[in-house]
Amino acid sequence: MNKPQYRAIGLLVRKDQILLGQKGDGIGVGNYIAIGGKPKGNETLEQTLIREMKEEIGIEVLDYNLVAKITFLFQQKKEWNQTVYVFTCSKWKGIITPSIEITPKWFWTNEIPYQYMWADAKIWYPYIISGQKIHADFLYNPDNKTLARHNVTIVSEV
Questions:
Q1: Whole-angstrom Cα distance, residue 50 to residue 44?
Q2: pTM for the whole structure
């Protein structure tokens, strides 16, 4: 099995809303996702988060909290395997702006468009929205769209 890639992603939160981005290119184009990507060079996860937020939606993240470590495995697309570190971000400066990669949109937390997201989102997002920290893993079926299995564990520290 290929070694998973590592990514840092962020969810901007304010009151009962969350910012998601509609993916404009690459894997999962058209889906709503959190903002982020892979480290460059020797970047830390935090540096990756800050850079990706600036590149993809034009803001400078000022406050963030690591809330999840999630591993995604694909039976038919091993190159898609990845471990994702999820941060919630409650303070930032700048104007949220679309990019080629992402069209950002605010959603009420009770109206998240799970039907336009990866199959795993409806399982782990509620934990994060409710303020819990998790470790999780998801195995996708050969169709790369449905889940074969998953596991979510609530943790005190990621």
A1: 10
A2: 0.94
